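quick one before i forget lol
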Amino acid sequence: MKSLYTFFSVNKKRLIAATLVISVGFGAYSFKDDYFEISKNLEIFTGVYRDINLYYVDETKPGDLMKRGIDAMLESLDPYTVYIPESKIEDFRFMTTGSYGGIGANIMQTDSNTYISDPYENSPAAKAGLKAGDRLVEVDGKQIKGRNTEQISEILKGQAGTEVKVTIVPLGASSPVTKKITREVIKLKDVPYFGMVDKETGYIKLVSFTETASSEVKEAFVNLKDKQGMKQLVLDLRGNGGGLLREAVNIVNFFVPKGEAVVDTRGKVKEWDQVHYALNQPLDTKIPVVVLIDQGSASASEIVAGSLQDLDRAVIVGERSYGKGLVQQTRDLFYNSKLKVTVQKYYTPSGRCIQKLDYSHRNENGAVTEVPDSLLKKFKTKGGRTVMDGRGIDPDVQVGDEELAKIVQPLFEQALFFKYANEFALAHPSISDAKTFHLSENDYTRFIAMCSTHNLEYKTETELALEELKKTAQKESYIQDALHEYEALAHKLVPDTKGDLQKFKHQIKLILENEIIARYYFDKGRVEATLSEDRALAKAIENFDPVKHSAILSPKK
């Protein structure tokens, strides 16, 4: 079940995968001694592919057949080694640059219709007056009914400077209108928000590691320190799935001396092994830093958190990170296609690799398992603290995030947060700022009334556990002796939708307020609105206390 913070994460709307990419190219290298085995199997594969397409009883689609074969082969390795056909090259570029040509709006589907869900601030869509809740009807004269969001998104995208006609039914209206929108280069920010959370504490939210990540972090840091008087920094990497390795190295470099080893990458091709050093003068090697991580922090995020932890430069707060210690490189193939292939593992300054899953060894069912506890090793930070490999980054201060109530899932699936926010925005031309806005009791009562017209089906963990108990009792032939009691308990544990809307009111209101705030203050407002209720952030600030901060970064005696 998702945590409350993960639900709010801006990164939920991004396509950037949990991957660490070396963006520089490498020259060819000679085959190993298994050249004959490779050559033999290439000939066999070519023969099978040729004969299937020539002689199979029904018509085949050679392109689809080949892609399925390649995908199945790569799937046996790891999830990060993938074939990128020419048709998906733009998606790959977006992963590394965060940029694409388009109108700058997210779309969603519910009730068999497609809606604008989030126009980006200052985007062509926003400038043209498109708002969340507008129903999309046509794009360039093409009916979008029957198309999925990916297909519609492809039609909306295009080269910057080109024009697209978008027909919508505006929120609250009944008649369609057509707007001509000139596409622009849309660059999603790596740092969607930064600001001061109190008189001394600066906060930077970093959601990805595209090619502008370090420059955006630097700009935010300088602004907070020089213009707003920051004395201590919280760097938030929760939900950040990673990106470019060089950007991770640059960000660590902001806080450690020039010449410090940040990360070591090693693989089969020894000529490619490299130690990545801090190459520039730092921004500040003394300012206290706390880094926030969670289970969604992966790859480049783990390099930043792990390196700063190993160098005793930052206190890490939150949940254990994802555990991805693999590095990918892109190889150019024929016909504008590419192969993204895992070529190395990375090692933080202490010498540890935090890769959790062992893709080279699978069980008899083909499933990937975690590195066994017996093979985990201890390493020492620069100051002598003990850290472990093989399990992601363990925070210095553990803070579990609040779990989402089960009722939230059907509310989200039936777009009830979205629908109520649309109604609210129609009735309220403006609201207070993102930090202070809250729904009134009457507003929440109206939301409950809306929910009462929908069938919200969900099962609690208690119900699921009780069902498992029944199965076990049936297996052991005990259920008949306790059937009456079981049925009575099961009846009592059936979710009470109206009761749960009150029981989990605080949590549901936070999500609803977050959705409403986005109507007025976009993604920046979404982030800002969560800060006052953020338990991990509160714990981070608590651990800036000089005594606590120093104690955490000192070796345990």
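fyi DSSP finds 18 helices and 24 strands in the chain.
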